[in-house]
Amino acid sequence: MFVRKCRTAIKQTTRFYCLVPQRTCKIDVRGAAAMPPVPRLNQQEQQQQQQQQQQQLQPSFERLVFNPHNCGQATKLSEQDKRDYERDNAEFNAATAELNKLQPNEDSIRNSITITNAKANSVANTIMYLERSGLPLKELEKMSIIHVAGTKGKGSTCALVESILREYGARTGFFSSPHLLSTNERIRINGEPLAKHKFTHYFWKVYNRLLESREHDKDMPTFFMFLTTLGFHVFHAEKVDVLVLEVGMGGELDCTNIVPNVRTVGITSLALEHTQLLGNTLEQIAWQKAGIIKPDSNVFTHVTQPECLEIIYKRAAERNAQVIQVLDTQHYLESNLYAEYLDSFNEYVRLNGALAIALAKDWLRQTKGPLQQLQLDDSKMVSKVLRALLNTHWPGRCQLVAYQNMRVHLDGAHTVESMRVCCEWFAKSITASKNNPKILVFNRTGETDVTGLLQELQRTCPFDMVCFVPNVASTEPIDPSQTTVFCGAEKQIKRAHVIAQSWQKLCESNQVPNQAQVYNNVWDAFNGVRKRYPLNVELDVLITGSIHLLGAAISGLNMFRPLEEEAAKKQQEQSQQQQQQQQLESKDKGRSESIS
């Protein structure tokens, strides 16, 4: 009796639908509203839906650059996750836009590096703003820090050090500059960029405190000085075991040089750079870089120029610091019978791996607590270190990305020495694809002479197409993180024309054809490339000259999907042909029936 009553209740409140071949069978039950039949997609609609889903799940260029080992199909977000992502992104962009209003970076650096201008000393000003923002300098004394300066490879050296220490169980902080795509890349916790919602939280906390404590309207830190202050707040609040700190520019008067108790210091390769700011000779450059040496610290370097080493040793002696010259990575691995791994390493590991190992091991010996490793032997490789080197990923440095039938080579080389390394890497890479057209995308901001850089590029290979562009992705509104704080798009385009003229002179001197053209942005450049070379032609592309250009290229290529557009076009053409064929068949059938 009870079962019969329940069945009656169900029948009075429910309507059932059952799908059977060729029709929808509807069973009506009294008292319920009618439901429409389930719509069916035709073949063309199904194909379009499948294509859209496939395109949405394919990895973007950004993902291939930043997460090359995790580029399977993208995880589909729930509607709530999408809303949270959009909100976090909007709030982060608002914070970044506010950050960009601070004094242009180049002007602030020029002022701070002028030794005679005591009022503009960036070290003193950074300390002042740090304390105004609520973080006393004495709190930094409690932090354990590895400080690294240099012309080439300081960022990749820091990335390798951070990876090794993380492998040993340390909770790491890593401050670097500049960023490739997004401002939060500069501040990393355990190897990952600070989450955007956390960046926003810390940004407004520090920014509002500084805004409230101003003594006049312009009394705010500069762009890089603010980010340095913000970074210290984050690392202090996140309670990192060790902070790997990359110098912004120079060393002696760099904003990062406020840290008092550094026991482990690194100085990477040196070359002439930013000569209008740091000096016109290698000795002057070395003096600036050696300015981060602290009393009683251990200073590790693979600098080779005798004149630079003399300055480093002299400044170290003044502060009772010990200088240790590090072997190159190849000799280090060969002495440890690990030479077979050399081909597995990225170029930056080959160049800076041994220095990073020395820095990490020195910190592990000197630190206190459970992370201390007193028995480490500098002359021996261990599995943890090898694993860390193999797993380190530092985007945009001698990086090869396969995308849209292009082998895209990314490197931010901006000195003659680093460009030579970049060109050697590119030349080695293209030996396996000799028949591919070779494309160069280049920019170099600032007023420095680019002739040396261009000469290295011309020696590398005969480029089939050369694109000089500003650091601008496309005509779309510029992402706040990609806003160039010291050089607008119009000025950059003029600069691109100047570079193109230098290239023309070199072509005439070397008696080679000039394949160069200036484009307004990266998107236009790649459109020009694909107009010349069909989509079925694989290309070898080298993008170099500026880290900022790499960011614009990543943004531009993120939106540049000609293969998918071509596939969609072909699919549409096929669908139209099928429809026309069906119409013809239908007409023929109608005629046959009328005749019979």
Properties at a glance:
six-stranded mixed beta sheet; 596 residues; disordered N terminus; alpha/beta; Protein-Tyrosine Phosphatase, Chain A; 16 strands; eight-stranded mixed beta sheet; UDP-N-acetylmuramoyl-L-alanine:D-glutamate ligase
The general outline is: globular
Beta strands, count:
16
Derived from helix and strand composition plus strand pairing, the structural class reads alpha/beta
> Terminal Cα separation, in Å?
65 Å
CATH A-level architecture of the largest domain:
3-Layer(aba) Sandwich
Radius of gyration computed on alpha carbons:
30 Å
**Contiguous uncertain segments of 5+ residues:** 1-35, 112-119
The averaged pLDDT comes out at 84
- CATH fold description of the largest domain: UDP-N-acetylmuramoyl-L-alanine:D-glutamate ligase
Give the CATH level 1 class of the largest domain.
Alpha Beta
The number of domains is 2
Q: How many separate helices?
A: 22
- The share of residues in helices is 40-55%
Strand content: 5-15%
The largest sheet is: 8 strands, mixed
